[in-house]
Amino acid sequence: MCRLLGRAGLAALLAGGSLGLVATADFANPAQARAATKPPVQQAQPNVVVILVDDLGWPDVSSYGRSDVPTPNIDRIAKSGVAFSSGYVAASVCAVSRAGLLTGRMPASFGFTYNINDEGNEGAGLPLAEKTLAERLKPLGYRSAAIGKWHQGSARQFYPTNRGFDEFFGFLAGETVYVDPATPGIVTTPTKADANKPPFTQRRGNGVIVEGPDARSVANFDKYLTTEITDRAVDFIDRSAGKPFFAYVAYNAPHWPLQVPQAYYDRFAHIKDPVRRTYVAMIAAMDDGVGKILDTLERKGVRDDTIIVFLSDNGCPEQFGFCNPDHPWSWGKFTYLEGGIRVPFLFSWPRRLKPGGIVDTPVSSMDIVPTVLKAAQPKAPLPKGLDGQDLLASAQHPPRTPRMLIWGQEPVFAVRQGPLKLWRSQDWNQTHLYDLDNDPAERTDLSGTQAEARERLERVMEDWRAKLPKPLWPLHTTRKVVVDGRETEWVY
Protein backbone atom coordinates (compact mmCIF):
# COMPACT_ATOMS: atom_id res chain seq x y z
CA MET A 1 0.00 0.00 0.00
CA CYS A 2 1.24 3.48 -0.88
CA ARG A 3 1.56 5.93 1.97
CA LEU A 4 2.55 9.55 2.42
CA LEU A 5 6.09 10.09 3.64
CA GLY A 6 7.82 12.91 5.46
CA ARG A 7 10.39 15.05 3.71
CA ALA A 8 13.33 12.97 4.94
CA GLY A 9 11.66 9.77 3.80
CA LEU A 10 10.92 11.17 0.35
CA ALA A 11 14.48 12.40 -0.04
CA ALA A 12 15.84 9.01 0.96
CA LEU A 13 13.62 7.31 -1.56
CA LEU A 14 14.72 9.50 -4.44
CA ALA A 15 18.33 8.91 -3.47
CA GLY A 16 17.70 5.21 -3.99
CA GLY A 17 17.30 4.07 -0.40
CA SER A 18 15.84 0.82 0.82
CA LEU A 19 12.21 1.92 0.83
CA GLY A 20 11.52 0.74 -2.67
CA LEU A 21 12.62 3.18 -5.37
CA VAL A 22 12.70 1.42 -8.72
CA ALA A 23 15.94 1.99 -10.65
CA THR A 24 17.52 0.97 -13.92
CA ALA A 25 21.14 1.14 -15.00
CA ASP A 26 20.50 4.45 -16.76
CA PHE A 27 18.79 5.93 -13.73
CA ALA A 28 21.41 4.70 -11.30
CA ASN A 29 24.31 5.90 -13.44
CA PRO A 30 23.39 8.60 -15.97
CA ALA A 31 27.06 9.06 -16.91
CA GLN A 32 27.20 5.51 -18.21
CA ALA A 33 24.33 6.25 -20.57
CA ARG A 34 26.34 9.15 -22.04
CA ALA A 35 29.49 7.15 -22.70
CA ALA A 36 29.05 7.03 -26.48
CA THR A 37 27.46 10.44 -26.97
CA LYS A 38 28.77 13.60 -28.52
CA PRO A 39 30.69 15.83 -26.08
CA PRO A 40 28.43 18.60 -24.76
CA VAL A 41 28.94 22.07 -26.17
CA GLN A 42 27.51 24.87 -24.06
CA GLN A 43 24.77 26.91 -25.72
CA ALA A 44 23.92 30.53 -25.12
CA GLN A 45 20.22 29.64 -24.89
CA PRO A 46 18.90 26.37 -23.47
CA ASN A 47 16.72 23.98 -25.40
CA VAL A 48 13.34 23.24 -23.85
CA VAL A 49 11.46 19.95 -23.71
CA VAL A 50 8.10 19.97 -21.93
CA ILE A 51 6.67 16.48 -21.58
CA LEU A 52 3.01 16.74 -20.64
CA VAL A 53 1.13 13.50 -20.01
CA ASP A 54 -2.58 12.97 -19.57
CA ASP A 55 -4.55 11.95 -16.46
CA LEU A 56 -1.52 10.51 -14.63
CA GLY A 57 -2.05 10.26 -10.86
CA TRP A 58 0.53 11.62 -8.40
CA PRO A 59 1.54 8.20 -7.01
CA ASP A 60 1.75 6.54 -10.44
CA VAL A 61 5.42 7.32 -10.96
CA SER A 62 8.27 5.87 -8.93
CA SER A 63 10.08 9.22 -8.69
CA TYR A 64 8.57 9.91 -5.27
CA GLY A 65 9.29 6.51 -3.81
CA ARG A 66 7.20 3.48 -3.16
CA SER A 67 4.90 2.80 -6.10
CA ASP A 68 3.53 -0.18 -7.98
CA VAL A 69 4.30 1.68 -11.21
CA PRO A 70 8.00 1.55 -12.17
CA THR A 71 9.00 4.60 -14.25
CA PRO A 72 12.81 4.35 -14.55
CA ASN A 73 13.11 6.85 -17.40
CA ILE A 74 10.89 9.49 -15.85
CA ASP A 75 12.99 8.94 -12.73
CA ARG A 76 16.09 9.87 -14.75
CA ILE A 77 14.69 13.41 -15.01
CA ALA A 78 14.24 13.53 -11.24
CA LYS A 79 17.68 12.07 -10.62
CA SER A 80 19.34 14.79 -12.73
CA GLY A 81 17.23 17.59 -11.22
CA VAL A 82 14.40 17.75 -8.73
CA ALA A 83 11.03 16.15 -8.10
CA PHE A 84 8.55 18.72 -6.82
CA SER A 85 6.27 16.91 -4.38
CA SER A 86 3.86 19.88 -4.33
CA GLY A 87 3.61 20.45 -8.06
CA TYR A 88 0.26 21.81 -9.21
CA VAL A 89 -1.51 22.55 -12.47
CA ALA A 90 -3.78 25.49 -13.27
CA ALA A 91 -6.98 23.43 -13.37
CA SER A 92 -8.24 19.92 -12.80
CA VAL A 93 -9.36 19.33 -16.37
CA CYS A 94 -7.38 18.94 -19.60
CA ALA A 95 -7.99 21.96 -21.85
CA VAL A 96 -8.04 24.52 -19.05
CA SER A 97 -4.86 23.12 -17.50
CA ARG A 98 -3.05 23.23 -20.86
CA ALA A 99 -4.03 26.84 -21.42
CA GLY A 100 -2.34 27.76 -18.14
CA LEU A 101 0.84 25.87 -19.01
CA LEU A 102 1.16 27.33 -22.52
CA THR A 103 0.53 30.94 -21.49
CA GLY A 104 1.91 31.15 -17.96
CA ARG A 105 -1.38 32.74 -16.91
CA MET A 106 -4.36 31.61 -14.88
CA PRO A 107 -6.86 30.54 -17.57
CA ALA A 108 -9.97 31.87 -15.83
CA SER A 109 -8.36 35.33 -15.84
CA PHE A 110 -8.87 35.48 -19.62
CA GLY A 111 -12.16 33.57 -19.78
CA PHE A 112 -10.80 30.07 -20.50
CA THR A 113 -12.83 28.77 -17.57
CA TYR A 114 -14.24 25.45 -18.77
CA ASN A 115 -13.20 22.44 -20.79
CA ILE A 116 -13.62 22.16 -24.57
CA ASN A 117 -15.84 19.39 -25.94
CA ASP A 118 -14.15 16.98 -28.33
CA GLU A 119 -16.12 18.26 -31.29
CA GLY A 120 -15.43 21.79 -30.09
CA ASN A 121 -17.64 24.29 -28.34
CA GLU A 122 -18.42 26.80 -31.05
CA GLY A 123 -15.52 29.27 -31.19
CA ALA A 124 -13.81 27.76 -28.15
CA GLY A 125 -10.05 27.91 -28.00
CA LEU A 126 -7.05 29.69 -26.54
CA PRO A 127 -7.76 33.41 -27.16
CA LEU A 128 -5.52 34.92 -29.80
CA ALA A 129 -4.59 37.78 -27.47
CA GLU A 130 -2.90 35.27 -25.14
CA LYS A 131 0.61 34.44 -26.33
CA THR A 132 1.85 30.88 -26.10
CA LEU A 133 5.38 30.02 -25.03
CA ALA A 134 6.15 29.14 -28.66
CA GLU A 135 5.03 32.61 -29.79
CA ARG A 136 7.28 34.22 -27.19
CA LEU A 137 10.28 32.07 -28.12
CA LYS A 138 10.04 32.53 -31.90
CA PRO A 139 11.57 36.06 -31.96
CA LEU A 140 14.39 34.74 -29.76
CA GLY A 141 15.46 32.32 -32.50
CA TYR A 142 13.77 29.15 -31.27
CA ARG A 143 12.24 26.51 -33.49
CA SER A 144 9.20 24.87 -31.88
CA ALA A 145 7.10 21.75 -32.39
CA ALA A 146 3.85 20.63 -30.77
CA ILE A 147 3.55 16.87 -30.81
CA GLY A 148 0.56 14.91 -29.52
CA LYS A 149 -2.63 16.23 -27.92
CA TRP A 150 -3.54 19.88 -28.54
CA HIS A 151 -7.03 20.51 -27.06
CA GLN A 152 -6.73 24.30 -27.34
CA GLY A 153 -9.37 24.78 -30.01
CA SER A 154 -10.10 23.11 -33.34
CA ALA A 155 -10.91 26.17 -35.47
CA ARG A 156 -8.22 27.27 -37.89
CA GLN A 157 -7.11 30.30 -35.88
CA PHE A 158 -6.32 28.08 -32.88
CA TYR A 159 -4.28 25.51 -34.84
CA PRO A 160 -0.76 25.03 -33.38
CA THR A 161 1.15 26.37 -36.37
CA ASN A 162 -0.96 29.53 -36.06
CA ARG A 163 0.00 29.80 -32.37
CA GLY A 164 3.78 30.01 -32.72
CA PHE A 165 4.69 26.39 -33.39
CA ASP A 166 6.64 25.64 -36.56
CA GLU A 167 5.50 22.01 -36.66
CA PHE A 168 2.55 19.98 -35.46
CA PHE A 169 1.76 16.28 -35.38
CA GLY A 170 -1.15 15.05 -33.33
CA PHE A 171 -4.87 15.55 -32.74
CA LEU A 172 -6.99 18.53 -31.76
CA ALA A 173 -9.53 16.90 -29.45
CA GLY A 174 -9.31 15.86 -25.80
CA GLU A 175 -9.10 12.13 -26.52
CA THR A 176 -8.65 9.69 -29.36
CA VAL A 177 -8.13 6.00 -30.04
CA TYR A 178 -4.48 4.89 -29.79
CA VAL A 179 -4.59 2.21 -32.45
CA ASP A 180 -6.98 0.04 -34.41
CA PRO A 181 -7.97 -2.65 -31.89
CA ALA A 182 -7.80 -5.22 -34.69
CA THR A 183 -4.05 -4.62 -35.00
CA PRO A 184 -2.13 -7.79 -34.02
CA GLY A 185 -0.47 -7.61 -30.62
CA ILE A 186 -2.78 -4.95 -29.14
CA VAL A 187 -4.66 -5.32 -25.86
CA THR A 188 -7.84 -3.25 -25.57
CA THR A 189 -9.44 -3.32 -22.12
CA PRO A 190 -12.98 -2.06 -21.46
CA THR A 191 -13.68 -0.07 -18.30
CA LYS A 192 -16.82 0.44 -16.25
CA ALA A 193 -17.46 3.75 -18.06
CA ASP A 194 -17.04 2.52 -21.64
CA ALA A 195 -20.78 2.04 -22.16
CA ASN A 196 -21.05 5.84 -22.36
CA LYS A 197 -18.19 6.19 -24.83
CA PRO A 198 -17.97 5.69 -28.62
CA PRO A 199 -16.55 2.38 -29.88
CA PHE A 200 -12.85 2.00 -30.65
CA THR A 201 -13.28 1.15 -34.32
CA GLN A 202 -12.24 4.51 -35.77
CA ARG A 203 -10.86 7.95 -35.01
CA ARG A 204 -13.53 10.59 -35.38
CA GLY A 205 -13.66 14.32 -36.00
CA ASN A 206 -10.98 16.16 -34.08
CA GLY A 207 -9.56 12.85 -32.88
CA VAL A 208 -8.09 12.18 -36.34
CA ILE A 209 -4.30 12.44 -36.45
CA VAL A 210 -3.11 15.37 -38.57
CA GLU A 211 0.19 17.07 -39.30
CA GLY A 212 1.67 20.15 -40.93
CA PRO A 213 0.28 23.66 -41.35
CA ASP A 214 -2.46 22.34 -43.66
CA ALA A 215 -3.67 19.75 -41.10
CA ARG A 216 -3.42 16.87 -43.54
CA SER A 217 -4.60 13.51 -42.24
CA VAL A 218 -2.04 10.88 -41.27
CA ALA A 219 -2.83 7.25 -42.13
CA ASN A 220 -1.35 5.55 -39.06
CA PHE A 221 -4.26 3.78 -37.36
CA ASP A 222 -2.25 0.55 -37.34
CA LYS A 223 0.56 2.17 -35.28
CA TYR A 224 0.44 2.72 -31.52
CA LEU A 225 0.05 6.45 -30.94
CA THR A 226 2.34 6.67 -27.89
CA THR A 227 5.17 5.24 -30.00
CA GLU A 228 4.31 7.58 -32.86
CA ILE A 229 4.50 10.64 -30.57
CA THR A 230 7.88 9.47 -29.26
CA ASP A 231 9.25 8.93 -32.77
CA ARG A 232 8.13 12.37 -33.91
CA ALA A 233 9.73 13.99 -30.86
CA VAL A 234 13.00 12.15 -31.45
CA ASP A 235 12.98 13.17 -35.12
CA PHE A 236 12.38 16.83 -34.23
CA ILE A 237 15.24 16.86 -31.74
CA ASP A 238 17.54 15.12 -34.22
CA ARG A 239 16.79 17.77 -36.85
CA SER A 240 16.89 20.73 -34.47
CA ALA A 241 19.92 20.15 -32.24
CA GLY A 242 22.54 22.83 -32.87
CA LYS A 243 20.11 25.71 -32.56
CA PRO A 244 17.74 26.41 -29.66
CA PHE A 245 14.52 24.44 -29.88
CA PHE A 246 11.29 23.94 -27.93
CA ALA A 247 9.60 20.54 -28.06
CA TYR A 248 6.13 20.39 -26.51
CA VAL A 249 5.59 16.64 -26.26
CA ALA A 250 1.99 16.12 -25.17
CA TYR A 251 1.39 12.39 -24.75
CA ASN A 252 -2.26 11.41 -24.43
CA ALA A 253 -1.18 8.40 -22.35
CA PRO A 254 -2.47 7.13 -20.00
CA HIS A 255 -5.84 8.78 -20.80
CA TRP A 256 -8.79 6.58 -21.77
CA PRO A 257 -9.24 4.44 -23.91
CA LEU A 258 -7.17 1.64 -22.42
CA GLN A 259 -5.02 0.22 -25.20
CA VAL A 260 -1.45 -1.06 -25.07
CA PRO A 261 0.85 -3.46 -26.95
CA GLN A 262 0.77 -7.00 -25.56
CA ALA A 263 4.49 -6.87 -24.68
CA TYR A 264 3.83 -4.11 -22.13
CA TYR A 265 0.70 -5.80 -20.80
CA ASP A 266 2.71 -8.96 -20.23
CA ARG A 267 5.17 -7.09 -17.98
CA PHE A 268 2.51 -6.70 -15.30
CA ALA A 269 0.99 -10.15 -14.93
CA HIS A 270 1.13 -9.70 -11.14
CA ILE A 271 -1.60 -7.02 -11.36
CA LYS A 272 -4.83 -9.02 -11.31
CA ASP A 273 -7.27 -6.25 -12.26
CA PRO A 274 -7.06 -6.00 -16.09
CA VAL A 275 -8.12 -2.33 -16.03
CA ARG A 276 -5.40 -1.26 -13.60
CA ARG A 277 -2.94 -3.56 -15.37
CA THR A 278 -3.57 -1.94 -18.75
CA TYR A 279 -3.28 1.56 -17.29
CA VAL A 280 0.08 0.70 -15.69
CA ALA A 281 1.27 -0.91 -18.93
CA MET A 282 0.35 2.27 -20.83
CA ILE A 283 2.47 4.26 -18.39
CA ALA A 284 5.36 1.86 -19.02
CA ALA A 285 5.07 2.41 -22.78
CA MET A 286 5.07 6.17 -22.27
CA ASP A 287 8.03 5.89 -19.87
CA ASP A 288 10.02 4.04 -22.53
CA GLY A 289 9.24 6.92 -24.87
CA VAL A 290 10.60 9.39 -22.33
CA GLY A 291 13.75 7.28 -22.20
CA LYS A 292 14.19 7.54 -25.98
CA ILE A 293 13.81 11.31 -25.81
CA LEU A 294 16.45 11.52 -23.07
CA ASP A 295 18.75 9.19 -24.99
CA THR A 296 18.42 11.40 -28.08
CA LEU A 297 19.34 14.52 -26.13
CA GLU A 298 22.39 12.73 -24.76
CA ARG A 299 23.37 11.31 -28.15
CA LYS A 300 23.20 14.80 -29.68
CA GLY A 301 25.31 16.22 -26.85
CA VAL A 302 22.66 18.74 -25.74
CA ARG A 303 21.28 17.19 -22.56
CA ASP A 304 23.14 19.54 -20.19
CA ASP A 305 21.76 22.58 -22.01
CA THR A 306 18.18 21.35 -22.16
CA ILE A 307 15.49 22.32 -19.69
CA ILE A 308 13.18 19.35 -19.20
CA VAL A 309 9.86 19.58 -17.40
CA PHE A 310 7.70 16.50 -16.94
CA LEU A 311 4.19 16.75 -15.53
CA SER A 312 0.59 15.60 -15.92
CA ASP A 313 -2.22 17.89 -17.02
CA ASN A 314 -4.39 16.88 -14.05
CA GLY A 315 -4.98 13.97 -11.71
CA CYS A 316 -6.40 10.53 -12.39
CA PRO A 317 -10.14 10.22 -13.26
CA GLU A 318 -11.97 8.03 -10.75
CA GLN A 319 -14.82 7.01 -13.07
CA PHE A 320 -12.79 4.55 -15.17
CA GLY A 321 -11.61 2.44 -12.27
CA PHE A 322 -7.86 2.42 -12.95
CA CYS A 323 -6.54 4.88 -10.34
CA ASN A 324 -4.45 3.71 -7.38
CA PRO A 325 -6.93 2.97 -4.57
CA ASP A 326 -4.37 3.33 -1.77
CA HIS A 327 -3.26 6.95 -1.96
CA PRO A 328 -5.28 10.12 -1.23
CA TRP A 329 -3.76 11.98 -4.20
CA SER A 330 -4.32 9.17 -6.68
CA TRP A 331 -7.59 10.47 -8.15
CA GLY A 332 -9.71 13.58 -8.34
CA LYS A 333 -9.79 14.83 -11.94
CA PHE A 334 -12.56 17.46 -12.32
CA THR A 335 -12.32 18.26 -8.58
CA TYR A 336 -10.24 20.64 -6.49
CA LEU A 337 -9.13 18.02 -4.02
CA GLU A 338 -5.35 17.51 -4.07
CA GLY A 339 -5.74 14.48 -6.33
CA GLY A 340 -7.24 16.68 -9.04
CA ILE A 341 -4.54 19.37 -9.21
CA ARG A 342 -1.41 17.97 -7.50
CA VAL A 343 0.51 16.01 -10.13
CA PRO A 344 3.91 14.41 -10.82
CA PHE A 345 6.17 17.41 -11.57
CA LEU A 346 9.86 16.98 -12.39
CA PHE A 347 12.39 19.60 -13.48
CA SER A 348 15.92 19.23 -14.81
CA TRP A 349 18.53 21.57 -16.30
CA PRO A 350 21.95 20.01 -15.68
CA ARG A 351 23.95 23.08 -16.74
CA ARG A 352 22.31 25.23 -14.07
CA LEU A 353 20.73 22.94 -11.49
CA LYS A 354 22.47 20.36 -9.35
CA PRO A 355 20.46 17.25 -8.43
CA GLY A 356 18.30 18.17 -5.46
CA GLY A 357 16.08 15.18 -4.74
CA ILE A 358 12.58 15.85 -3.45
CA VAL A 359 11.62 19.53 -3.12
CA ASP A 360 8.46 20.38 -1.16
CA THR A 361 8.21 24.01 -2.31
CA PRO A 362 4.83 24.44 -4.07
CA VAL A 363 5.17 25.15 -7.79
CA SER A 364 2.75 25.53 -10.67
CA SER A 365 2.55 24.61 -14.33
CA MET A 366 2.26 28.36 -14.93
CA ASP A 367 5.90 28.62 -13.76
CA ILE A 368 7.16 26.99 -16.96
CA VAL A 369 6.75 30.08 -19.18
CA PRO A 370 8.61 32.56 -16.92
CA THR A 371 11.31 29.95 -16.19
CA VAL A 372 12.01 29.40 -19.87
CA LEU A 373 11.86 33.08 -20.82
CA LYS A 374 14.25 34.05 -18.04
CA ALA A 375 16.64 31.28 -19.13
CA ALA A 376 16.47 32.26 -22.79
CA GLN A 377 16.87 36.00 -22.19
CA PRO A 378 18.32 36.51 -18.69
CA LYS A 379 18.73 40.28 -18.89
CA ALA A 380 15.29 41.04 -20.31
CA PRO A 381 12.31 41.78 -18.06
CA LEU A 382 9.56 39.19 -18.06
CA PRO A 383 6.37 40.08 -19.93
CA LYS A 384 3.69 41.69 -17.82
CA GLY A 385 0.73 39.63 -16.72
CA LEU A 386 2.43 36.30 -16.11
CA ASP A 387 1.22 34.45 -13.02
CA GLY A 388 4.14 32.07 -12.59
CA GLN A 389 7.51 32.13 -10.87
CA ASP A 390 10.98 30.82 -11.70
CA LEU A 391 11.24 27.06 -11.18
CA LEU A 392 15.01 27.30 -10.88
CA ALA A 393 14.68 29.59 -7.87
CA SER A 394 12.00 27.37 -6.35
CA ALA A 395 14.24 24.33 -6.72
CA GLN A 396 17.24 26.02 -5.11
CA HIS A 397 15.88 28.38 -2.46
CA PRO A 398 12.70 27.88 -0.42
CA PRO A 399 10.73 31.14 -0.38
CA ARG A 400 10.66 33.19 2.81
CA THR A 401 6.93 33.83 2.47
CA PRO A 402 4.66 30.88 1.63
CA ARG A 403 3.31 31.20 -1.87
CA MET A 404 -0.39 31.83 -2.50
CA LEU A 405 -1.88 29.50 -5.11
CA ILE A 406 -5.46 29.87 -6.30
CA TRP A 407 -7.75 27.87 -8.58
CA GLY A 408 -11.29 28.31 -9.77
CA GLN A 409 -13.92 27.10 -12.17
CA GLU A 410 -17.18 28.68 -11.07
CA PRO A 411 -18.79 27.42 -8.85
CA VAL A 412 -15.79 25.66 -7.23
CA PHE A 413 -12.64 27.42 -5.97
CA ALA A 414 -9.59 26.60 -3.89
CA VAL A 415 -6.72 28.58 -2.33
CA ARG A 416 -3.52 27.27 -0.76
CA GLN A 417 -0.92 29.15 1.27
CA GLY A 418 1.62 27.21 3.28
CA PRO A 419 -0.02 24.05 4.65
CA LEU A 420 -3.52 25.57 4.69
CA LYS A 421 -5.94 25.00 1.84
CA LEU A 422 -9.42 26.47 1.51
CA TRP A 423 -12.05 24.76 -0.67
CA ARG A 424 -15.28 26.55 -1.58
CA SER A 425 -18.43 25.55 -3.47
CA GLN A 426 -20.59 28.53 -4.34
CA ASP A 427 -23.71 26.58 -5.27
CA TRP A 428 -23.45 24.31 -2.22
CA ASN A 429 -22.57 27.32 -0.02
CA GLN A 430 -19.90 25.23 1.69
CA THR A 431 -16.37 26.18 2.72
CA HIS A 432 -13.78 23.74 4.08
CA LEU A 433 -10.32 24.45 5.48
CA TYR A 434 -7.62 21.78 5.56
CA ASP A 435 -4.10 21.50 6.98
CA LEU A 436 -2.27 19.53 4.28
CA ASP A 437 0.77 18.85 6.46
CA ASN A 438 -1.29 17.00 9.06
CA ASP A 439 -4.25 15.99 6.91
CA PRO A 440 -3.07 15.30 3.34
CA ALA A 441 -6.27 13.38 2.59
CA GLU A 442 -8.39 16.51 3.30
CA ARG A 443 -10.76 14.78 5.70
CA THR A 444 -10.84 17.18 8.68
CA ASP A 445 -12.49 20.57 8.18
CA LEU A 446 -10.82 23.20 10.38
CA SER A 447 -13.18 26.04 9.47
CA GLY A 448 -14.69 26.13 12.95
CA THR A 449 -11.40 26.10 14.85
CA GLN A 450 -9.30 28.35 12.59
CA ALA A 451 -11.82 31.06 11.73
CA GLU A 452 -9.16 33.77 11.20
CA ALA A 453 -7.27 31.68 8.61
CA ARG A 454 -10.52 30.75 6.90
CA GLU A 455 -11.61 34.39 6.63
CA ARG A 456 -8.20 35.49 5.34
CA LEU A 457 -8.16 32.90 2.55
CA GLU A 458 -11.82 33.54 1.74
CA ARG A 459 -11.01 37.22 1.18
CA VAL A 460 -8.20 36.27 -1.21
CA MET A 461 -10.52 33.96 -3.10
CA GLU A 462 -13.40 36.45 -3.29
CA ASP A 463 -11.13 39.32 -4.37
CA TRP A 464 -9.77 37.17 -7.20
CA ARG A 465 -13.20 35.83 -8.17
CA ALA A 466 -14.60 39.37 -8.39
CA LYS A 467 -11.99 40.29 -11.02
CA LEU A 468 -12.65 37.34 -13.33
CA PRO A 469 -14.19 38.01 -16.75
CA LYS A 470 -17.25 36.18 -18.00
CA PRO A 471 -16.38 32.66 -19.26
CA LEU A 472 -15.93 32.55 -23.03
CA TRP A 473 -18.14 29.44 -23.29
CA PRO A 474 -20.52 27.83 -20.80
CA LEU A 475 -20.03 25.30 -18.05
CA HIS A 476 -20.84 21.76 -19.17
CA THR A 477 -22.01 20.29 -15.88
CA THR A 478 -21.40 19.90 -12.16
CA ARG A 479 -21.94 16.74 -10.16
CA LYS A 480 -21.76 15.53 -6.58
CA VAL A 481 -19.19 12.73 -6.34
CA VAL A 482 -17.49 10.70 -3.65
CA VAL A 483 -13.71 10.45 -4.03
CA ASP A 484 -11.81 8.23 -1.60
CA GLY A 485 -14.66 8.53 0.87
CA ARG A 486 -14.92 12.33 0.58
CA GLU A 487 -17.98 14.03 -0.87
CA THR A 488 -16.98 16.81 -3.25
CA GLU A 489 -18.10 18.65 -6.36
CA TRP A 490 -17.05 17.68 -9.87
CA VAL A 491 -16.82 20.51 -12.47
CA TYR A 492 -16.68 19.87 -16.21
List the helices and strands and how they pair.
Blueprint: H1 7-14, H2 25-28, H3 30-33, E1 47-53, H4 72-79, E2 82-84, E3 87-88, H5 94-103, H6 133-137, E4 143-149, E5 167-171, E6 186-189, E7 210-211, E8 216-217, H7 225-240, E9 245-250, E10 258-261, H8 262-266, H9 274-299, E11 306-312, H10 338-341, E12 345-348, E13 357-359, E14 363-364, H11 368-376, H12 391-396, E15 404-409, E16 412-417, E17 420-425, E18 430-435, H13 451-466, E19 478-483, E20 486-491
Parallel strand pairs: 1-9, 1-11, 2-13, 3-14, 4-5, 4-9
Antiparallel strand pairs: 2-12, 5-7, 6-10, 7-8, 11-12, 15-16, 16-17, 17-18, 19-20
Helix pairs in contact: 4-9, 7-9
Domain Sulfatase N-terminal: 46-376
Family: Belongs to the sulfatase family.
GO molecular function: arylsulfatase activity; metal ion binding
Short description:
The chain has 492 residues and is α/β, with parallel strands linked by helices.
Walk me through the structure.
The chain is of the alpha/beta class. It folds into two domains: 41-396, 3-Layer(aba) Sandwich (Alkaline Phosphatase, subunit A); 404-491, 2-Layer Sandwich (Arylsulfatase, C-terminal domain), CATH 3.30.1120.10. It has helices at residues 7-14, 25-28, 30-33, 72-79, 94-103, 133-137, 225-240, 262-266, 274-299, 338-341, 368-376, 391-396, 451-466; strands spanning 47-53, 82-84, 87-88, 143-149, 167-171, 186-189, 210-211, 216-217, 245-250, 258-261, 306-312, 345-348, 357-359, 363-364, 404-409, 412-417, 420-425, 430-435, 478-483, 486-491. The chain has a ten-stranded mixed sheet. The longest helix has 26 residues, at 274-299. The relative contact order is 0.18. Residues 1-36 have low confidence and may be disordered. One of its GO terms (molecular function) is metal ion binding. Keywords: Calcium, Hydrolase, Metal-binding, Signal. It comes from Sphingobium nicotianae.
